[in-house]
Amino acid sequence: VAVSAALAADGPSRALGARDQVSADPDLTEALGLGRGALVASADLLRPTPDALAAWSAEGAVAVDLQSAAVLRVAEQARVPAAAVLLLTGPVGSPTTLDDDALAAAALEAARAGVAALGIPVSA
Which of 59, 77, 112, 120 is deepest in the core (most CB within 10 A)? Predict the structure, then answer.
């Protein structure tokens, strides 16, 4: 999933001055070729509470991660374009539902999308 924006529900992005959410660069996100992007929530919690999940979902977040908001905020401060890609492995708070081969294939696909978005030739 390409990230269009991340809710700043984590300490690092807040410490960096992020407000409610931080946006990814729309052109770079589009160049990933993974769709228009989605809102995610970045949090300090490996297992968010049901109340936190409900609040983020109500705001439109489709996934939770630990770092997108902080990475996007650093890029924003440095005035460099940034995008993020998340591999969704299963419902929040549950063990991964992908086996090792599927996870490796998804990671490779995400990496290829990233280098292609940057204009770096990708070999098969």
Answer: 112
| Helix (H) or strand (E) run with residue 112 in it | helix 100-117
Instruction: Give, as one character, the DSSP assignment of residue 93.
Output: T
pLDDT in tens, 12-48: 999 999 999 999 999 999 998 888 889 999 999 878 8
CA–CA distance, 2 with 85 (Å, rounded to integer): 5
> How many Å apart are CA 124 and CA 114, to the nearest integer?
14
Surface-to-core class of residue 3, CB atoms within 10 Å of its CB (0-12 exposed, 13-18 middle, 19+ buried): buried
What's the start-to-end Cα distance of the chain, in Å?
A: 21
